[in-house]
Design a protein that fits this description.
mainly alpha
Length: about 190
């Protein structure tokens, strides 16, 4: 058996698949520059009052676990188990290598498509929903003397001055250095 011929249409289909993945990644990257939807919040909202906690798992570890690890597993499986060792007797060496690279391409294509799609959906939903982080108040230092200037509502304000809705939650001084000027939040 010789090396099977691969049609140009099939190669073009896989090239289009890889281009679709690149388009998904570019759209996901572009979503970082859009202004997300913001919601009013209250300084007494327990849902955004959780304490700030340093990350337990680093970004590098996440990338290794979700991209590098599966890519290495796909590589190992493609070159050791495809086609099955029992089938090796019926194929020429060039055909076996071609099949192994074919399976590697398909495996990595599936991994890349799933990662790019997950990134696109996650970035899109974060922009559409735009809820504040659970630890927003611990990341920021609200200036309670200037609450009245940022009040947008709050039926319960007649019971307590803290029970008001505020509009400026994205304009905050964040822990770690980055800050945006706003009189509601101070360092």
């Amino acid at each position: 058996m010789g090396v099977p011929k691969v049609s140009k249409r099939l190669v073009a289909a896989y090239v289009l698949d890889w281009l679709l993945i690149v388009v998904f990644l570019l759209i996901s990257y572009g979503l970082n520059f859009l202004t997300p939807r913001y919601h009013a919040f209250s300084l007494v909202d327990l849902d955004i009052s959780f304490p700030y906690v340093d990350e337990i798992v680093s970004t590098a570890a996440l990338i290794v676990a979700s991209v590098v690890g599966p890519a290495v597993i796909i590589l190992l499986v493609s070159f050791t188990l495809v086609p099955s060792p029992a089938a090796h007797r019926g194929f020429a060496w060039k055909t076996l290598i071609g099949l192994k690279f074919w399976e590697l391409n398909i495996g990595w294509l599936g991994l890349a498509l799933s990662e790019a799609t997950a990134l696109l959906v996650t970035q899109g939903l974060k922009n559409i929903i735009g809820k504040p982080r659970p630890d927003l108040l611990s990341r920021c230092n609200p200036n309670v003397d200037n609450i009245a200037a940022h009040t947008v509502g709050g039926y319960a304000a007649r019971y307590s001055a803290e029970w008001v809705l505020l509009s400026e939650w994205p304009l905050v001084h964040l822990m770690g250095g980055s800050s945006l000027p706003d009189p509601l939040f101070v360092l």
